[in-house]
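Hi R.,

As promised on Friday, here is the backbone we talked about, encoded as structure tokens. Could you run it through your design pipeline when you get a chance and send me back a sequence?
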């Protein structure tokens, strides 16, 4: 891949993609998406990407003073408590369904193998988060309604951003699947997702049946950082961003870093205050660094 081509991808990757839809009729939802396609929507996606980074930065600043009202920090001050399993499934579902719907209305861009695989990475993650992960929650604490609504809106926002970019605008050269950016990024995505799932498994099994209270997580990446599950997801989305080389995917990775990095810091401080024997050599979220 030529350097100039890579730079174009990070700036937004192309200006069309919707004009090649020959198998979808002009009517209905797909016809509407085709009519919306063009420079104006391309610019909108770029602005939404910048907005996603700003949202992440603002959230990180806010979380320095107010804990994320979820899990151990849940409070009725943030709205009526909702059952953990259905709340989690419903709030994550838009990040699965919106990209799938956009891909179904796509044309030549969506049909290209790099786009299929990259969109598949995004969909696989949220298929797990929306359909599988909720079933594994063990007596999870209720989710405040305010937290649920924020998560739902975020998933609609980002589902459109990533789904529309990869199904209609991101164009790749024929050898992209062999390019070092894609190969390295895909490995990072896969490794990060595996770390995230394994870390969640460790957290779910900290307590034996009938036990209550909190314990120090041990094993896996928890030997290195307090927020092992967060580290896995951060690595996952930075790998995804490298594989995609789009401004939209980079914005998502940065937003993830801001928000999950802040949550990991809260968890780390909570562990230090809660347990006198908490390992002092553990970092917060980035092994050996932070």
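Update: got your reply. Pasting your designed sequence below so it's all in one thread:
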């Amino acid at each position: 891949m030529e350097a100039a081509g890579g730079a174009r991808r990070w700036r937004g990757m192309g200006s069309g993609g919707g004009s090649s839809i020959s198998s979808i009729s002009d009517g209905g939802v797909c016809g509407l998406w085709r009519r919306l396609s063009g420079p104006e929507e391309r610019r909108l996606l770029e602005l939404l990407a910048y907005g996603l980074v700003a949202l992440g930065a603002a959230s990180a600043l806010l979380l320095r003073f107010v804990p994320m009202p979820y899990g151990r920090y849940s409070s009725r001050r943030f709205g009526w408590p909702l059952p953990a399993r259905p709340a989690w499934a419903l709030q994550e579902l838009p990040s699965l369904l919106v990209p799938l719907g956009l891909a179904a209305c796509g044309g030549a861009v969506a049909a290209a193998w790099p786009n299929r695989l990259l969109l598949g990475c995004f969909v696989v993650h949220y298929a797990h988060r929306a359909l599988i992960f909720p079933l594994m929650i063990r007596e999870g604490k209720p989710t405040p309604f305010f937290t649920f609504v924020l998560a739902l809106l975020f998933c609609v926002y980002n589902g459109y951003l990533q789904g529309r970019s990869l199904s209609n605008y991101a164009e790749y050269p024929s050898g992209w699947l062999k390019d070092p950016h894609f190969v390295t990024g895909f490995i990072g995505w896969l490794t990060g997702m595996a770390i995230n799932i394994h870390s969640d498994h460790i957290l779910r099994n900290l307590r034996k049946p009938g036990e209550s209270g909190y314990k120090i997580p041990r094993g896996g990446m928890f030997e290195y950082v307090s927020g092992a599950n967060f580290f896995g997801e951060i690595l996952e989305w930075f790998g995804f961003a490298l594989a995609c080389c789009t401004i939209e995917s980079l914005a998502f990775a940065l937003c993830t870093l801001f928000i999950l990095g802040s949550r990991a810091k809260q968890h780390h401080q909570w562990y230090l205050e809660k347990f006198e024997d908490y390992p002092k050599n553990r970092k917060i979220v980035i092994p050996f660094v932070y």
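One thing I noticed while checking it: The beta strands are 81-82, 143-144.

Thanks again,
M.
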